[in-house]
User: What shape does this take?
Amino acid sequence: MIKIAPSILSADFARLGEETRAIDEAGADYIHIDVMDGHFVPNITIGPAVVRALRPHTRKVLDVHLMIDPVDPYLEAFATAGSDIITVHAEAGYHLDRTLQVIRGLGKKAGLSLNPATPPEAVTYLLDRLDLILVMSVNPGFGGQKFIPAQLDKLRRLRTLIGDRPIELQVDGGVTADNAGTIAAAGARVLVAGNAVFSASSYASAIASLRAAAEAATS
Ligand code: DX5
Ligand code: ZN
Assistant: This one.
């Protein structure tokens, strides 16, 4: 019931295909791909060509987190590259309702991400267009930052707003085996983890520890 989504932002970029296969075999549920534009966030990472290149390396869900503004001109490129979930930021678009419809129209699952300062109520009138809500528990841009505890309250409030809709609640940033239990208890069911997986000597044990800590807190 808990899904673990290792973020390849912390992988060895010179060996991305191999790293993707390694986390797939180590038990990852989703492959989380962080796309940054040097404008919406102060870092630049990868584009649709890299998503397309990674697609043949795994059959697992490619969970593409777009930290780019504008985002609309690039949705089709990320969809045809082989993304399964396309998540956009609430702060990066003026017409989110339309953006989310476009993502579903491309046959992909639609996600909405909230920066730490954005209130949970930002999703209120979009719930019927959403397959996933992503709570940023660090300010996006870099891996290896510290979890912001105030986001636990946001998770709890989102859990109430979601109700019984089939929307996955995901958390991203500073997730470790030490805080995974608290995060899951607050309502998150998909945990993104960059450093906690890729800095470990065994990806499989790191993924298993995150999953065990989160599941122990929800059973
Ligand atoms: C931050 C990214 C995250 C990040 C998570 O902007 O969206 O996915 O890579 O990395 P850790 O788990 O190291 O905080
Ligand atoms: Zn991310």
About this structure: The first strand starts at residue 3 and ends at 6. The chain has a mean pLDDT of 98.
